[in-house]
Amino acid sequence: MRSDTSQTIYRNDYTPPAYLVDTVELGFDLDPARTIVASRLTMRRNPDSERAEIELYGENLELVALRMNGKPLGKRDYRIDGNLLRIANPPQDVTLEIETITAPEKNTTLNGLYVSNGSFFTQCEAEGFRNITYFPDRPDVMAKFTVMLRADKQKYPVLLSNGNLIEEGELDDGRHFAKWEDPFKKPSYLFALVAAQLVCQEETFRLKDGRDALLQVWVEEGNLDKTDYAMQSLKNSIRWDEERFGLELDLDRFMIVAVGDFNMGAMENKGLNIFNTKFVLANPRVATDVDYAGIEAVVGHEYFHNWTGNRVTCRDWFQLSLKEGLTVFRDQEFSADMIGTASGRAVTRIEQVRTLRQAQFPEDAGPMAHPVRPDSFVEINNFYTVTVYEKGAEVVRMLQTLVGRDGFRKGMDLYFERHDGQAVTCDDFRNAMADANQRDLILFERWYSQAGTPIVKARTQYDADAKTYSITFTQSCPATPGQPKKLPFHIPIAVGLLGADGRDMPLGQDGANGSTAVLELTEETQTFNFTGVGEQPTPSILRDFSAPVVLEYDYTDLELLHLFSHDSDPVNRWEAGQRLAMQRLLRLTSAVASGGKLELDATFIDAMRKILTDDGLDPSFREQALLLPSETMMAEQMSVVNPQAINAARQFVRATIGTTLRTELMQQYLANMTPGEYSPDALSAGRRGLKNLALSYLAAAPDADAIELAQAQFDNAGNMTDRVAALIGLIHAGADSAAPALQAFYADFEKEALVVDKWFAMQAAAPATTVKAVRELMKHRAFTLKNPNRARSLIFSFCGANPAQFHAPDGSGYAFWAEQVIALDALNPQVASRLARSLDRWRRYAPALQGQMKKALQKVAGGKKLSNDVREVISKALAN
Length: 880
What we know:
The protein is built from 26 helices and 32 strands. It is of the alpha+beta class. The chain folds into four domains: about 190 residues, tricorn interacting facor f3 domain (Immunoglobulin-like), CATH 2.60.40.1730; about 140 residues, Neutral Protease Domain 2 (Neutral Protease, domain 2, Orthogonal Bundle), CATH 1.10.390; about 90 residues, Aminopeptidase N, middle-beta domain (Immunoglobulin-like, Sandwich), CATH 2.60.40; about 300 residues, Peptidase M1, alanyl aminopeptidase, C-terminal domain (Zincin-like fold, Alpha Horseshoe). The strands form nine sheets. Strands 2, 3, 5, 6, 9, 12, 14, 15 and 16 form a nine-stranded mixed β-sheet that branches. The chain has a five-stranded mixed β-sheet with strand order 18-19-20-22-21, covered by helices on one side. The chain has a four-stranded mixed β-sheet with strand order 30-27-26-32, with no helix packed on it. The longest helix has about 35 residues. The radius of gyration is 28 Å and the shape is globular. Its EC number is 3.4.11.2. Keywords: Aminopeptidase, Hydrolase, Metal-binding, Metalloprotease, Protease, Zinc. This is Aminopeptidase N. Its cofactor is Zn(2+). Aminopeptidase N is involved in the degradation of intracellular peptides generated by protein breakdown during normal growth as well as in response to nutrient starvation.
């Protein structure tokens, strides 16, 4: 926890560091209670700075010694202001030697150097290195690191750090050492060390330039059989980056280490990626298809950071999306290319759009709304958000849409040619794209500087005599905190026109005779005209979700059904089905709230039947098309949110589908079996996904046959995907056999931490799970608040995935939330601040719920030892 008071930091106040660091030598004598850290920094005055003072950040440190150019410094030679150690008027060139002591075993924040399960690990992004030693801990200070690790050999036989191992050996008293050298300059947030009892899977991998690199995946004893997929994903990532972007691995070795206690998914430390076990460990017995996909994406993401984040890094933390948005886009493209089919790419795109609507659009509309490149922050950890990551990736994707795939590659090449080894800004990336393609992208900068989700309204006009068709777009963007008015964005809108036969029509004039036109909306209102249109078309607007906007167009049911049946763009075909479903879900929600009759029309059911039974469509696409919008997405469409009515309406639709389409669902369940040895490939995963969606609909309107089917699948499942799906079906159906099945599941997997996380999460998200039930689960011997994965599995799942119970009218869910935020904040502020976001949009709910939410928010706000992480979230929620 930071010891200073809340202070807002502004992007416009950026000043270059007064001193640069050329080399860093670090020595660690590792001991859980008392680790001694010695550092030697060679520094020089920065010619771009007008200041003449060395500033070193340090938190939770005991300063033992400080020497400058060989001379010990007394307390009169420096001053410590909060977390800053200042040395006034130093010489032009400085060698600074610092000795500090830290206590890793007491570090429950998992930020800096900490002990997990008896082993040493680090997490230094964003500002964790200052918990290790005093240092100019900012991303624009890049230096070459040499690291000496010393530790007890029996307890910590494996000693790892960044770069290449250059020396290792024995010491006295049963200790040993390892010396590592990173040949590339890096900021301190990319520093890493590991000291542990680990085993590794390793392979020698031939790079495109003919060099051999050593690849290692390090895990705890007993987990080696779960590393194959992570290793294969790493090899695929290296090869893909060589082929797609011409970027090669620049080290002799590349290491991945899995740790059970970790705040994030993974961290891209140069050459030594430290991962949450969730994104490394997998075999068919313990991992689902979703787990396998997550491992591939995250392994790719962290490896791709080797260039987009490490070789070229951020000037300051306001530029975080420079590396994260770009690298998310790269891992999305990698995952899509690994599938290799058009339908597979479409499904990954649909999943990305779903994430945006479910998580990022609500963030844009809430009190924590911020631009992709924020203007200010109190605690930078609060800005590792879906806006910076996923919306940032959409911004990069729009650039590729505007300049084309080849043009995007040219822009990337110029970006690395200009900035390799530098700490730069989002503007530098955009300028490289513009210059490489001779494009004016000045207006595009507003995607980085303006918060909120733009709203694009479309209206159309057809002239049968002239055979012309026009689309007029009007854009606006709602006010967000600190930004009451917005200027027009540069929005690429991909458009197609469908004829009565369901085929794409050729687009003349503004469509340049293709079947899909990318129209560039840069003004508040613009009209685009198409010629040679021989009949009234159905417009397919925003194909492939070409921009992260809300499209408002008054489609009729007939038009949506036409698109849902025929659109050649799979994303818009899916979108048409989502619009059909959302219209009905919202009507039913109103009926529930008013006590009206609940009915679902045959037109919608028939449309669902048609998609379900169309064997010409990929199973994975059919699964996505048949998934209803989530309760969160429904809430976003309501001016006053009624969680219980939303839940009741959605459950009614699910039950109606399960009852009305029972025969067809059973047919698809049987047709999409995947007998034989388990494989996580896209086709097999898609078949399992459709089969298990059919099971979930059958269990939503349970009869004896549906319960028997779910029980049989649970008993006989040969993989974790099918077993979890069956258990969820039993739980949600309220089957008598659910409790014994839960007991059996836990008994089978109680030694598999990641599976126990699933066990908690399934129960937390079940519609019948109350606050009281969650409190009972917290008493289970396997539960602990100290492990972020375990806290997320139960507490976060209840607060985020069980809205009807979390928003119980008596306010018990909010009281529970307040207790857990306060308890987590005392242990791990980063995890606590993410949980704090659960109530940041409290003003959108009915007055009775608002009062209960405000009371809970005020309880947290009144905490005397509140971290900056949580204080920033709570204060913004109460203020906006």
